[in-house]
Specification:
It contains four helices and five strands. It has 150 residues and is α+β, with helices and mostly antiparallel strands. Strands 1, 2, 3, 4 and 5 form a five-stranded antiparallel beta sheet that branches. Strand 3 and strand 4 form a beta hairpin. 12% of the residues are buried.
């Protein structure tokens, strides 16, 4: 490499370092330091969530099974008892009409319910003459009771 190019690169490096040092010295107190080329280490992963309580796991499994049974039997009144809020007679009648129009169905849990603190999801697989559908039912623990929101 020729001497002129080497000297130019050294001067450029010194000037760059001087500019960064100058910014650090002139920066007002309390302001964050200038960004550097050194990568910041990634944040440490947080602790894994606590394992679900056995009682909650059992309660969610019972609720999920009751949802499946209500759908398979076309029992809107039974389904209405699984919700967190009382359902109107009109809403339950509408659900009953929909289920009656669907004809015979089979329903089962597509997978074990997923529990996350005071919420969970039960995915229900339904097969009928019109096709199949997997529906995730959100579940919530309210006042110590697991239920279907809505």
């Amino acid at each position: 490499m020729n001497r002129a190019l080497t000297a130019g690169l050294v001067l450029l490096g010194v000037a760059g370092a001087g500019a960064v040092l100058g910014l650090l010295l002139v920066a007002p107190a309390g302001s964050p330091p200038a960004a550097s080329d050194t990568p910041t280490p990634p944040p440490r992963p947080s602790a894994p969530p606590p394992a679900p309580d056995e009682a909650d796991t059992a309660a969610v499994a019972v609720l999920a099974r009751a949802i499946v049974d209500a759908i398979a039997r076309h029992d809107s009144a039974a389904f209405g008892k699984l919700t967190c809020r009382p359902q109107t007679a009109e809403a339950l009648a509408g659900l009953q009409r929909t289920w009656d129009a669907a004809g015979p169905v089979t329903a089962k849990l597509a997978a074990p319910p997923e529990l996350r603190g005071e919420s969970a999801t039960a995915k229900v697989h339904v097969e009928a003459a019109g096709g199949t559908k997997d529906t995730p039912f959100p579940l919530h623990k309210e006042n110590g009771r697991w239920c279907v929101p809505g």
